[in-house]
Each structure stands twice: as C-alpha cells, then as structure tokens.
Design brief:
By secondary structure, the protein is mainly α. It has one domain. The protein has two helices and no strands. It starts with a helix and ends with a helix. It comes from Salmonella enterica (Salmonella choleraesuis). This is Fimbrial protein.
Amino acid sequence: ADLNTDGLKFQAKLKGGQTEGDFKSVASFAVAYK
C-alpha cells in the first residue's frame, strides 16, 4: 500500500513537470514493477 502511494505521488510529480510521453513511460514502469 505504501509503495503504491509513493508511486502515485511520483507519477503525479512527473505528470506535472514532464511530457505526456514520459508520464506514460512511468505509468508503464509502475504496472510492470507491480
């Protein structure tokens, strides 16, 4: 649960400061890591 929450925070930070493509890459990584 803690890891998932940290992942969401990380994704939100990237979504706010990076391109959509980078965000999708992080989301894909999060799913693969999960």
